[in-house]
Amino acid sequence: MPDEYFIPWLSSNIIALILLFFCWKYPKIGRYAYAIIFLLAAFINITTAIGSPELYLEYSKWTFLKVYERFIEGYFKEHITGFVTIIGLGQLLVSLGLLIGSYFYKPALIGGLLFAIGILPLGMGSGFPAPVFMIMSFWLLLTNKKINIPESSIS
User: Fold this and answer.
1) Whether the bond into 8 is cis, omega within 30 of 0
2) CA dihedral sign, ordered 85, 93, 28, 153
3) How many angstroms separate the Cα of 23 from the Cα of each of 20, 43, 114?
4) CA 122, 6, 57, 44: dihedral to nearest 10 degrees?
5) Section 111-134 average pLDDT
6) How far apart are CA 26 and CA 7, in angstroms?
7) pLDDT at residue 155 in the model
């Protein structure tokens, strides 16, 4: 890993471990922290996809699955803005579902879980092993009987 990526990689893993701890011991804090992170990620992904879509091509060199590499360098390359905007909108929906709660809570957790599973094969490009910690965090929130069906945060 080049030195320029070490600090972002280390930071993402430290944050993911802290979030895992909060999802285990203080699930409400973990829930809202992930809501904020997914909201920020949605904003960053959508604005970057529109302004500098070529940046997403970097991920092909980090993936450990050839199918991901071929996809990024092929079809994805021709449709970066569309793909990443859809991902950003999905992140926004996860964020809103975590914030609103009620019937939107479980689908938001499942969406976050699927997102983490989806970026896992990007290897170091996803901050690996950070997605593993995200998967564990979302699983803890999903199986936590105390907060499984929270009331709406808005009402």
Assistant:
1) no
2) positive
3) 5, 23, 17
4) 90
5) 96
6) 27
7) 47
Distance CA 47, CA 88 (A): 9
* Confidence (pTM): 0.89
Q: Cα–Cα distance between 35 and 37 in angstroms, integer? A: 6
- pLDDT reported for residue 147: 61
For the segment 64-84, the average pLDDT, to the nearest whole number, is 95
Residue the block writes with tokens 């690996």: 128
The average confidence (pLDDT) of the chain is: 93
- Looking at residue 127, its amino acid is G
Average pLDDT for 92-97? 98
| pLDDT of res. 153 | 54
**Residue 120 DSSP class:** G
The one-letter amino acid at 66: K
- DSSP characters over 56-110: GGGGGGT-S-HHHHHHIIIIIHHSHHHHHHHHHHHHHHHHHHHHH-GGGHHHHHH
Q: Which two tokens stand for residue 5?
A: 């990526």
For the chain, helix (H) and strand (E) counts, in that order, are: 7, 0
Helices 105-119 and 130-143 cross at an angle (nearest 10°) of 160
